Amino acid sequence: MPSPFVSPLRIAVLGPESSGKSTLCRMLLPLLQAQGVAAYWVEEYARHYYANRAYQPTPRQVLEIAQGQLAAEAAAVAQGARVLLCDTTVLTCRIWAEVAFGEAEPALLALDAPQCYALTWLACPDMPWQPDPLRSHPEARDWLFDLYRQALAREGVAPLLLQGSPQARLAAVWRVLQRDYLPELPNF
Fold it and tell me: b/e per residue, 38-76, with b = 16+ CB within 10 A?
C-alpha cells in the first residue's frame, strides 16, 4: 500500500556501487519533466564533495557528505520540486561509514531517516561493474546489497527492487509512479 502523496514526493534511489542508480535517475528525470512534472534529480553529493580533493574519506567527511546530501534535497524543495529523485541518501553514508570505519558516528546516525521517503527503490547489483575513482568494492556488491536490505528492513521500509536492464527498471518505476502517485502520467 503506497504512502499518501505528500508534495514533494521524495524517492530514495539506493543500492551498492555501480548498480544503475544514477543511470535510472538520468533516464527518468527528462521523462517526468516532459510530462510537466516538476522533478529534480538530487545527485550523489559525494561526487561534488570529492571533485576537488583527494578521495581519502574520514568519518568526519562522511558526515559532511550526509549533511551536503540533505542540504541538496532541501535546495531542490526550495526550488519548487514536486518529485525528488534522491540518488543515494544518508543511509548510503551510514553503510559507507560502517563498512569503512566499523561504525557510524552518532551525529551521522541522527541524520539517517529512511522512513522519510515516500518511495525507496533498491537497485540490484545485476548490472556490469563500471570502474570509477569513488568506487572500491567490485567483488562485494552482493554483500553491500544485503546490508541495504537489512538496514531498510530494520526501519520497516519495503523497497521496490530494481532488476534487469535500464529500460526494464525504468518501466517498473514508471508503472509504480503512474499507479500510486502520478496518475496523470501516460502509459510507458
Answer: ebbbbbbbbeebbeeeeeebebebbbbbbbebbebbeeb
